[in-house]
Write a structure and sequence with these properties.
This protein has one domain: Alpha-Beta Barrel (TIM Barrel). 31% of the residues lie in helices and 20% in strands. It has helices spanning 3-16, 68-76, 95-111, 130-149, 173-179, 206-218, 270-276, 312-324, 344-355, and strands at 38-43, 59-62, 80-85, 116-119, 154-160, 182-186, 226-231, 233-238, 241-242, 248-249, 266-269, 285-287, 292-298, 304-308, 329-333. The longest helix is centred in the middle third of the chain and has 20 residues, at 130-149. Bound molecules: 2-acetamido-2-deoxy-beta-D-glucopyranose (NAG) (3 copies). One 2-acetamido-2-deoxy-beta-D-glucopyranose binds next to loops. The site of one 2-acetamido-2-deoxy-beta-D-glucopyranose has 4 residues, from loops. Pfam families: Glyco_hydro_18 (PF00704). It comes from Solea senegalensis (Senegalese sole).
């Protein structure tokens, strides 16, 4: 056969059937097994996944670029790898557009040997609006399509820390919970809408966080549909003024109807926080009301900052609730942001963060 023909044949073969990227073909088989307890993590890219505690992981939502090596490795550990799904809701009010979106995602998941999808739509929605109904339909139809086309696959949906129209996300939480396999509750960014004094506060205060779960459960949502998501990051706020009592007033940055917001701060990784706390002005402080650690530091220009974050002590107070209330599992945003360098102190801190997912 001539050269051109050979090229054509190869192209057809590559496009027609999806080539398994794994060393062993069985690693391309989708994970079907259901496990009682979910450890659901988000991976945002890079190779830190090599250092995760794979004895715990059940699902990896890949928010970075597709990484075939990660897929093969996760499958070798019996862990699911799921797509990210996001779309402007105004587009999918139209049934044809909605079906096209779902079909595209199912085909993408299949072609990459993936095990489901995590739908991450954080848009503001008015109760009863066309988008409100379209979103519920999207979740139900996506779940039906994935379950039909990829048996045993998992469809999850990300929700705010409370069902009470947080950030104007007034969704039909009950119907959405019934329509998918699980809700990942994002118990963080809880200062996105500050209505009282504009001051730095904890990213995810313990009582407020647990109250959010009480609210979901009071809607009669099955606890086995709820995965508790904890933050592995914190917020660094430049203080306009740091009072004698240690209260840091922050810039007024409005968000979705509230006069100020955590948008006045910058998100910082646990890795950064752990190095910064040791050279801070205050060292690690503990707020006994919000049950969260924080510290103050001065930057090179002399500006004072207050940093609020979560560590094993604050996280385990929240994850204790998972067992006592029979939730489906735990997870975090995001798995990449610990210090995986393997250096002695870092290694210990990283291990303690993974272990805190199981309470104290
Ligand atoms: C369908 O989706 C496309 C984007 O994929 C968008 O531009 C278009 O406006 C949508 N059509 C309708 C009727 O919503
Ligand atoms: C700033 O903090 C100082 C010291 O606690 C306090 O006396 C002062 O009233 C504060 N200023 C503002 C604008 O809040
Ligand atoms: C920070 O300080 C703590 C307590 O003194 C110490 O155990 C730890 O090794 C220090 N961390 C780093 C990264 O130096």
């Amino acid at each position: 056969m001539n050269w051109l023909f050979a090229v054509l044949v190869t192209t057809v073969a590559v496009c027609g059937a999806n080539i398994c990227p794994c060393e062993r073909a069985e690693l391309c088989e989708q994970i079907r097994q259901q496990r009682d307890f979910e450890v659901f993590l988000f991976d945002v890219g890079s190779k830190t996944w090599e250092f995760y505690d794979w004895s715990m992981v059940t699902t990896v939502a890949t928010f970075g670029k597709y990484d075939a090596e990660l897929l093969c490795f996760a499958h070798s550990k019996g862990a699911r790898v799921v797509l990210k799904g996001d779309v402007p809701l105004s587009y999918i009010v139209d049934q044809e557009n909605r079906t096209a979106w779902i079909t595209e995602k199912v085909n993408l998941a299949k072609s990459q040997f993936m095990d489901g999808i995590n739908i991450d739509i954080e848009q503001a929605v008015d109760q009863g609006s066309p988008e409100f109904h379209a979103l519920t339909d999207l979740v139900r139809e996506t779940t039906e399509a994935f379950h039909r086309e990829i048996p045993g696959s998992q469809v999850s949906f990300d929700v705010a820390w409370s069902p009470n129209c947080i950030d104007k996300r007034c969704y039909d939480y009950v119907a959405i919970a019934e329509s998918c396999d699980l809700l990942f509750v994002m118990s963080y960014d809880e200062q996105s809408q500050i209505t009282g004094d504009c001051i730095a506060m904890a990213n995810a205060p313990v009582a407020q966080t647990l109250n959010g779960y009480d609210q979901y459960l009071s809607l009669k949502i099955d606890p086995k549909k709820l995965v508790m998501g904890v933050p592995w990051y914190g917020y660094d706020y430049p203080c306009l003024n740091l009072s004698q009592e240690g209260i840091c007033s922050i810039d007024k940055v409005p968000f979705r109807g509230a006069p100020c917001s955590d948008a006045a701060g910058k998100q910082k990784t646990y890795k950064w926080i752990m190095t910064q706390v040791n050279s801070s002005l205050s060292g690690r402080l503990w707020d006994s009301e919000q049950k969260a650690p924080y510290f103050n530091y001065k930057d090179q220009s002399g500006q004072i900052h207050q940093v609020w974050y979560d560590d094993p002590q604050s996280i385990c107070l929240k994850t204790n609730y998972v067992k006592s209330n029979g939730l489906r599992g735990v997870g975090m945003w995001n798995a990449n942001i610990l210090d995986y360098s393997g250096e002695t102190v870092a290694k210990q801190q990283t291990e303690m963060m993974w272990n805190a997912l199981f309470g104290c």
